[in-house]
């Protein structure tokens, strides 16, 4: 499939994994010049190093889970910021626009998420201290219940508990020689201008300019979906109940075109909007630029 990324045309490779047909999107992540990257590994009691970074076979890596979290967040923002545009694109009736609102995938939203929730940017609501409204499929006496809004567009891509998403994200491995700095950072007390007490932080970091490569796969179809005549871009059904209600009104019927639009206008922009990854953000870490490779 040929897709447009800015003014570039990129040919995406189709692959058969047996259980699914997928489209590969090759991705490059570069650590910005004014920053560094720290994605912590689970501390090992045997390691002498303090704050080691995540590695695969000795090479620094960005774990899929980190990237997924950042991508989910960017997809949420994309739908929040473009609800009118997408309502028009997907032919959603005026009184049904809420189907485009993302859910918060946790019962304990962050402060920022709660603010957006108060502004009705997300679906669902707070009941006491818990958020109610995340995507799920309930089976009640053999009947499928997905609520009035169905599965949200973000979970369509990323998946939710018990619901397959159409994206598969792998780990991103650092290119070239591992260039890690083992830095001791001393925080300066602003008042006294000397080293703050107990402020020595030791840890590994990936240098600015480092490049990581990996890929995202878009599941185009699976044998089960195929039996129902459903591909990526279509609304899915479970025993005749439409679960992806945000796609149910779309007048576009060409399946290839549908997949292309979701990739070009939703997935690619969300990927490119990722600007920060990993930890130690308060120290200026994690600034990245993410781009689509044209192999
Ligand atoms: Zn959701």
Automatic annotation (TrEMBL):
It comes from Methanocaldococcus lauensis. The keyword Nucleotide-binding does not apply. Pfam families: RAMPs. The lineage of its organism: Archaea, Methanobacteriati, Methanobacteriota, Methanomada group, Methanococci. It comes from the Archaea. Keywords: Antiviral defense. GO terms for biological process: defense response to virus. Transmembrane segments: none annotated. Residues 36-289 form the CRISPR type III-associated protein domain. Coiled coil: none annotated. This is CRISPR type III-associated protein domain-containing protein.
């Amino acid at each position: 499939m040929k897709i447009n990324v800015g003014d570039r045309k990129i040919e995406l490779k189709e692959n058969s994994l047996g259980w699914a047909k997928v489209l590969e999107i090759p991705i490059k992540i570069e650590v910005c010049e004014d920053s560094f990257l720290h994605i912590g590994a689970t501390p090992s009691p045997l390691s002498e190093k303090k704050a080691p970074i995540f590695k695969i076979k000795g090479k620094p890596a960005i774990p899929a889970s980190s990237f997924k979290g950042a991508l989910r967040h960017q997809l949420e923002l994309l739908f929040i910021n473009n609800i009118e545009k997408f309502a028009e694109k997907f032919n959603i009736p005026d009184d049904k626009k809420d189907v485009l609102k993302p859910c918060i995938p946790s019962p304990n939203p962050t402060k920022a998420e709660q603010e957006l929730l108060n502004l009705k940017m997300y679906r669902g609501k707070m009941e006491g201290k818990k958020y109610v409204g995340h995507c799920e499929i309930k089976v009640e006496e053999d009947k499928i219940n997905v609520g009035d809004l169905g599965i949200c567009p973000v979970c369509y891509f990323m998946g939710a508990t018990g619901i397959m998403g159409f994206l598969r994200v792998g780990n991103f491995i650092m290119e070239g020689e591992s260039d890690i700095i083992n830095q001791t950072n001393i925080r300066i007390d602003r008042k006294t201008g000397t080293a703050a007490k107990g402020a020595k932080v030791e840890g590994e970091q990936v240098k600015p300019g480092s490049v990581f490569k990996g890929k995202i796969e878009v599941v185009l179809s699976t044998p089960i979906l195929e039996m129902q005549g459903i591909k990526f871009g279509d609304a899915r059904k479970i025993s005749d109940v439409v679960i992806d209600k945000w796609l149910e009104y779309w007048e576009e019927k060409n399946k290839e075109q549908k997949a292309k639009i979701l990739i070009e206008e939703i997935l690619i922009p969300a990927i490119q909007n990722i600007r920060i990854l990993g930890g130690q953000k308060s120290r200026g870490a994690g600034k990245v630029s993410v781009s689509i490779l044209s192999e």
